[in-house]
Write a structure and sequence with these properties.
Strand order of the largest sheet: 3-2-4-1-7-8
Number of domains: 3
Structural class: alpha/beta
Largest sheet: 6 strands, parallel
GO molecular function: ATP binding; tRNA dimethylallyltransferase activity
Radius of gyration: 19 Å
Subunit structure: Monomer.
Keywords: ATP-binding, Magnesium, Nucleotide-binding, Transferase, tRNA processing
Strand content: 5-15%
Mean pLDDT: 87
CATH class of the largest domain: Alpha Beta
Order of helices and strands: EHEHEHEHEHHHHHEEHHHHE
Protein name: tRNA dimethylallyltransferase
Helix content: 40-55%
CATH superfamily of the largest domain: P-loop containing nucleotide triphosphate hydrolases
Distance between the termini: 31 Å
Low-confidence stretches: 175-180
Number of strands: 8
Number of helices: 13
Family: Belongs to the IPP transferase family.
Length: about 290
């Protein structure tokens, strides 16, 4: 049986570097499951540009599921499972090792353990109506529509407007729910399942501050200006992302640059902490501290 490797972890823990090392060692190909790096044109703020440069230094090891949708497209964990399953099978058939790497554990969880979803089609009219709702308003709407669905959400999901909107969309379409599994068999689950986290929690903030400073220096503001110039907006799914939201507010003169950076760092730290809380519930992950 072909080995499957999965690498998860908090923001800025070196997941890509480890994945490349393992790809070199095990004749592998990488599969991205970072929900921010699946989007085209979102390069600097997501760190994609740095990852691509790193990969080039490793003799162009193949990586899948980068740049697959535009910023105005919604992309769910169901979409991820649908795309990634045949990719894994293709890699295995060619005698190579699939190496899943990323920080969006929800995508990986749904691939490995199934999806509580009914594959409801997108309802763009409803999404437009929900776009300007606060998180609290979205929570209230979902609670009224499907309290059981709301109660199943973890702390990360319950505070994530995109995931709340998707649950509302599903609940509005039908009350019937099904449990969707990927085509992976239990025997095909990762033989190696690595999680990366910080041993010293104070180091997390330091690393994130450094990354934010680097991305600003590398042209983060110009990246956002370019996206807005080609008619993408702050309400597009891809731009409802940490970093982009703060810079858009700065460009709209809603906040100062100093405030934008502060909010960006704080949001990244909060996200990294939620990542760890979410992943720690998976007892199959073997943790490495850095």
């Amino acid at each position: 049986m072909t080995n499957i490797i999965a690498i998860v972890g908090q923001t800025a823990t070196g997941k890509t570097k480890l994945a490349l090392e393992l790809a070199k060692k095990h004749n592998g190909e990488l599969i991205n499951f970072d929900s921010r790096q699946i989007y085209k044109y979102l390069d600097i703020i997501t760190g994609k540009d740095k990852d691509v440069l790193t990969m080039k230094q490793w003799n162009n090891i193949t990586i899948w599921l980068y740049d697959i949708v535009t910023p105005n497209q919604y992309f769910s964990s169901f979409d991820f499972v649908k795309l990634v399953t045949p990719i894994i099978e293709d890699i295995k058939k060619r005698g190579k090792t699939p190496i899943l790497v990323g920080g969006t554990y929800l995508y990986l969880k749904h691939l490995l353990y199934g999806i509580d979803d009914n594959n409801s089609p997108p309802n763009f009219k409803l999404r437009n109506e929900l776009n300007n709702k606060t998180v609290k308003e979205l929570q209230n709407i979902l609670t009224k529509l499907d309290v059981q669905s709301f109660n199943r959400l973890n702390n990360s999901d319950v505070n994530n407007p995109r995931r709340l909107m998707r649950r509302i969309e599903i609940a509005s379409t039908t009350k019937k729910r099904t449990y969707i599994r990927s085509d992976l068999k239990r025997t095909d689950l990762p033989n190696t399942f690595i999680g990366l986290r910080y041993k010293d929690k104070s180091k997390l903030r330091q690393v994130i501050i450094k990354r934010v400073e680097e991305r600003l220096k590398n042209g983060a503001i110009d990246e956002v200006k370019k996206l807005l110039k080609i008619s993408y907006t702050e309400n597009d799914p891809g731009l409802k992302t940490i970093g982009y939201q703060q810079i858009i507010k700065y460009l709209n003169k809603e906040i100062t640059m100093e405030k934008a950076v502060e909010d960006w760092v704080n949001k990244e730290v909060q996200y990294a902490k939620r990542q760890l809380t979410f992943m720690k519930s998976d007892k199959n992950i073997s943790w490495r501290e850095i």
